[in-house]
Amino acid sequence: QQQVKQSPQSLIVQKGGISIINCAYENTAFDYFPWYQQFPGKGPALLIAIRPDVSEKKEGRFTISFNKSAKQFSLHIMDSQPGDSATYFCAASGNAGNMLTFGGGTRLMVKP
Amino acid sequence: KAGVTQTPRYLIKTRGQQVTLSCSPISGHRSVSWYQQTPGQGLQFLFEYFSETQRNKGNFPGRFSGRQFSNSRSEMNVSTLELGDSALYLCASRQVLDTGELFFGEGSRLTVL
Predict the structure, then answer these.
(1) What pLDDT shows up at residue B2?
(2) Cα B16 from Cα B77, distance rounded (Å)
(3) Residue B84 above 60 pLDDT?
(4) Distance from the CA of A8 to the CA of which of A24, B20, B35, B49 falls in 20 to 30 A?
(5) Distance in Å, alpha carbon of B41 to nearest chain A alpha carbon
(6) CB A37 within 8 A of CB A44
(7) Which residues of A touch B103 (CB under 8 A)?
(8) Do A98 and B99 touch (CB under 8 A)?
(9) How far apart, in whole angstroms, are the C-alpha atoms of residue A101 and residue B45?
(10) Which residues in chain A are closer than 8 Å to B99, comparing Cβ atoms?
(11) Of the candidates A93, A97, A96, A103, which has an alpha carbon nearest to the alpha carbon of residue A30?
């Protein structure tokens, strides 16, 4: 079964701290791993994505770390801000984004 | 450039009825996908259309169907509604297949009573 397991379900971080969200997958055919951010009442928006040929990708305060042998990947948000408070979803797919399989989501709250 | 537009944003139906949801993709995007979002099951892929053809289908019963028109606009239909169909239905578009980034709309929230 194609699953993506995400943890934690919720996370509280102080402003300026580091938020870390982890995901694990089972299907070795997955070759595309995006992270989405969703605010209440809005659709998910792509934050950052990685392919298995690299172990890390950084865009601004957001970094994906990827461990192919462990079938795990994580999102790090550096210098977390109250505006980062949202629900974050990891996802995975084969064929570059077709039929995304999403993790269960992490509700992040950044306290001022 | 306008984003993905979904209509209606909110609707209430009763069990046994059917519903049609509409999605207008970003101009120039030819691929449209549909996802269901619920608190219990999370985000689940329904289907994807490209050039009026269904390319992929998720694990949903035949009551869920969709289509795409020549202008790339898409509709999805759910027949014989059940209480468990209450969800946020999200449409997403991208320019071509196999390029990754999906742009989501704000969704249509369906409540089945």
Answers:
(1) 80
(2) 13
(3) yes
(4) B35
(5) 8
(6) yes
(7) 45-46
(8) no
(9) 7
(10) 96-97
(11) A93
